[in-house]
Amino acid sequence: MNLLIVVFKTSRNGKPVIEYDNYRFNLHKVTGPSGERRSWRCWRWRDGPCRASILTIAGVIVKVGKTHNHPSLLASKHKFFDKTSSQLTINS
């Protein structure tokens, strides 16, 4: 059993991001009656073009779409342990 760390945090520009499985995802769209449904795209969506994506509902990952077509640029999973982040451990 592998455990993956999911970190919801804020980018340097003040925008929400997710770090998941050593990749970073940027918030793409917020929908739903109270904004609880959010779609996230790999940070290399535009220049990659990497089509990896995540769907969250009320802060829970419900779908991981496509695989990345590039190596991870996050140095290690230790980077995820940030005191300013909310962290969630899930099974994969």
TrEMBL record:
Domain of life: Eukaryota
Signal peptide: none
Keywords: Metal-binding, Zinc, Zinc-finger
GO molecular function: zinc ion binding
InterPro entries for this protein: Znf_FLYWCH (IPR007588)
Name of this chain's protein: FLYWCH-type domain-containing protein
Domain FLYWCH-type stretches: 8-70
Pfam families: FLYWCH (PF04500)
